[in-house]
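Sequence only, no structure available. Ideas?
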Amino acid sequence: MGGALLKAWAANTNHEFTVADPADPPLPDNVAQVGSVDELGDAMFDYLIVALKPQLIDTVLPDYLPHLSASGVISSIAAGYSAEKLAAHAPGRSVIRIMPNLPAFIRKGVSGLYAHGSVTETASQDIEQLALCSGEVVWVDSEDMLDRLTAVAGSGPGYVFEMLRAYIEAAENLGFSAEDARTMVLGTVQGTLEMAQQSDKPLEELRNNVTSKGGTTAAGLNALNGDGKYSDLIRDTLQAAYERAVELR
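Reply:
I predicted one. Tokens follow.
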């Protein structure tokens, strides 16, 4: 995820980036790279972006903090590691957490942003511009709301992929080949999504527009959610993901 975001940031902003990674990963041409903190010399930075596995942060982050300017901001895309924990490494420093989701890889993501501490308007705008490079942005005003956003958007692609998988499987059970089932389902979902995005009508109204009384859509919808169990399942899905995000925090 860090590599995908960096590629979008380097291509769409005027910021200068230096990556610290001993693995020598492939990077955009305009991004510098060091293998260790020792190679930074006396370089100073306005932002320190944490793109590590949470279990590595306590070990790695302190080595790089001396290279963050006095007014610098720590920003993190690491899930399961709170802003409060990040701030504890650098008392008095501001922290902005970024919670991207998988479609950020194709610049169609949704990122949650949460500012901890006294974050300047400039820093907020800078981080927001970075997040906008990979899709939509939603600001939240607490870490708890960021956990809720994680349940909805961060984990959301997994739910959608599973629903698509089941939808395609059901089409195959009606006699279609795997290829035709995939074409129909993905095309139907993509077209429907684009219609919803282009319309200002409530989704319920759009649903009703395609549902004739006693017709095939009505029969399918009744099987899907006539008893409300599908709505309950979606609520339970988000609640379970949210509760797990709180545990990880």
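DSSP finds ten helices and seven strands in the chain.
Hope that gets you unstuck.
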